[in-house]
Amino acid sequence: MGNRVREFMTHRDPDEHIWVERDEEALIGTVRAGQRPMPRIRVFDLLQGEANPGGPSQALVWDGATLRIAAEQVNGKERGLTRAADYDLVFFQFSGSCAIESEYGAIELEPGEVALIPAGIAHRSTGKGECLRLRAMSKEAVNLGVDPDKPLTESRFKVVHSDPLPSQNGAGASTADDDRALEHLSFWDPTSDIWIERRCSELVGCVKEGGRGLKKLRAFDYFTGMTGKGGARAPVLYTGNEFRIDVYNLEGQQRGFHRGLDEDEIWFQFRGHAVNDTEWGIIELDPGEMSYVPRGIAHRINGGKGFLRMVFYSRQLVHPKAFNSSAGRRTSFEVQ
Prior knowledge:
The protein is an all-beta fold. It has no helices and 28 strands. It starts with a strand and ends with a strand.
């Protein structure tokens, strides 16, 4: 008999933890058949320059019935506006900064900050510096899980790239705020998409009341202790029936293996190195990389110094849509 370890199984509904004891060697690399292996994806190396005329370079990385996640590079001001008609948008800033103008007003995101753009709200972004971010699209409405006005700490981050970003030919060109521009009215099913001519100056800040508003969160400033060791629960930044976003700050080995039975977990490593023991094998992640844990797979995190991770949970199946080639770019990031 090998080393005995604890495993806890969870359901989203009902919210319960079931603890069992198992042999450690039975929980690492023991999958023998299955259709959902765990990739290691350098998501920002998937970007190839300007993909959308007048918009950000974008690569769809994860796709599901109610959740999609893309990597984006925003270079200068978008020439048009976007209004997500029937889905919410969550932007997480990884590097550089991004000013977002919307019908609720304007905010600016720095590394480690996140914001919800509710469905139906027109907006456009202006990227500054080496602006990289994640775009999460949720088909259901999501709500805040923490108070944006009451963070517990005040963290600031700087992200340094090992290599320059790919160029975006023609990106960054902009017109005056009162010039006319196209608004992309975007639907979950893109066959309904339309483009409408608007005057930008008449849209920014035009909402007078109602709705969920626009506020940013400093994602990693809500910890009450170290997660994953029994001392503190992971802060839930955004939550819905099908979707939520948590953050983790584990250093060292997680106190037990976790097996989520009715949710997929999509991991984004923000800072620090991580060694993840799973039944699919050992998956390592560095800043700017993503992987996922399909439902039913036991996993345990070994977090390096300064470990910070954002996790997207989906009750519906989510699948990887893009992979790095062996001959592609291999950008590394230092998060200070």
